Amino acid sequence: MVFDLPDDRGRFEQRVLHMRALIANTRSAYLRVIPQFQLHSRSELDARLRSVVAAGGEGLVLQQRDALYTPGRSTTLLKYKPYDDTEARVVAYTAGQGKYLGQLGALIVRRPDGLQFRIGSGFSDAQRRHPPPIGSNVTYRYNGLTAKGTPRFARFMRIRYDMPPPDPR
Question: What is the DSSP letter of 74?
């Protein structure tokens, strides 16, 4: 699946045309250009996102039409996907490695239902040096659940000082 041409010096809109021509000329049964489309309103964008997610996709990638190719993260290329957020209690830490040696690697948290898992991203350098205290509640965001019920791609958001009452069950 071809979604961009890094060596092409054109703007994204031009690169899309070049990708289509390149793939059409190869006559390969294995190469395809990722469908590109333009939307004109936030409601169209949200409807397309719901459709993609309902079909099993993770989300959309938004690209500015006049953007030049930039390797790595860019303000002209954004992921747009839904996420959930909720809270868990910090029960332990794992040690950081490499760049984070001597700092927080991940929080080990426990949900109210007893499930324990790690949250290892979303922290600033200051938060890695001074992590949320054990026993504190944190809010994290995630993108659905794994087959085992663990939050997928859990990311730290903030310490939660005022917890809502538990859900009545």
Answer: B
- How far apart CA 116 and CA 154 sit, in angstroms, is 12
Cα–Cα distance list, 164 to 88, 110, 161 (Å): 12, 16, 10
**Are residues 48 and 110 located together in one domain of the fold?**
no
- The b/e string for 64-89 (b: 16+ C-beta within 10 A; e otherwise) is eeeeebeeeeeeebeeeeeeeeebbb
Q: Which of 80, 110, 130 is the last residue of a domain?
A: 80
Asked whether residue 106 is assigned to any structural domain, the reply reads yes
pLDDT digits (tens, 9 = 90+) for 41-75: 999 999 999 999 899 888 999 999 999 998 888 89
User: From CA 28, how far away is CA 20, in angstroms rounded?
Assistant: 12
Mark which of 54, 80, 106 sits at the end of a domain: 80
pTM score, whole prediction: 0.66
